[in-house]
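Z., the sequence and structure:
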Amino acid sequence: MKFKFMALLLAAALLLTGCSWMDGEYVSVVPHQEPAVSGPTGAVSASDYHEFIDVLEELVLAGSESCVIDVGGFPQKTLDTGMQSANRYIREVFPMGAYAVEDIGYELGTSNGRPAVAVSISYRRSRTEIQRIRKKADMDGLAATVRTALDDHASRVAVLVNQYTETDFDQLIQDYARENPQKVMEAPQVSEGIYGSGRARVVELSFTYQNSREALRQMQAQVKPVFEAAALYVSGQGSQRQKLSQLYGFLMERFDYKQETSITPAYSLLCHGVGDSRAFAEVYAAMCRRAGLESMVVTGTKAGEPWTWNIVRDGEEYYHVDLLRSSGEGGFREYTDAEMTGYVWDYSTYPACGGLPQMPEPAQTDPTESTAEP
């Protein structure tokens, strides 16, 4: 639509002081207590409900607190209900309004003999917060923004997504942290706010860390050269098995490790020699990927206890690699499915290793025995 901006600065000033600038009855406006923000001044015309909505959207996007709207062309019999509907739309459906607007007030009257509406908007977000909202076309764009924030250990991201779909953000964050231990020193707790009810939404994610941002950045700086050294350690010619074994030696010979769980797995493992099976598997997989080797992290159980290890590709075959088990057996080893006695994992999720996995035999029962009801 095409807006017609009219110079009514005097009228706007009178509005903010609570003075009567209209011919009709009105309720005086109490000035908003937050610092005033600049935005469209004067009057904008709206000849129907949709144009009225467009004006309100522009005001919110600019963080404006007041405006005079010429509604001379708006059907008067629907004006009052139209404004109420517009209020609900801006505060509940329009994503930026649902995110930022606290309340919208209206005053009906006339200006220069024409029907007009004075709009006042109060916000629960600052103008800076509104203007910092990033805009992405879809959830892939949002995911990329979240990954960048995690790399920088940021505390918050807010994004306007044009094509929003339901997403498990906690899983997204945990997966990225596990896959990138060289970047994400600590996987944060996440709280989310989703604003709007249409196709477009504002997504606000807040991250809580136990360590300060500065401390995490220092950890990241200390871990980075270790990963770089690991990549150089296996550079050049050599078989995949040789490189896998070299990375095993590079990692396992750094410390006389103490097996404990840490909220900063890569840093604790590489800089202090403290880690659990998950830390070893995630760091080893990341080092393999940097060296051009295929390695995945497997979560399951060992002897009935939670355990994490790797599956690597060696030539045309896949094999299990359990760094801590190999360390106890004297050196790097690759294991087939048949050699993974005592381990349990989701066979359907991972490739077969050295042949088909051995499935447990079904328990034999005596058909003459009766079975008790549960």
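The CA atoms of residues 116 and 156 lie 40 Å apart. The first strand starts at residue 43 and ends at 45.

Let me know what you think.
H.
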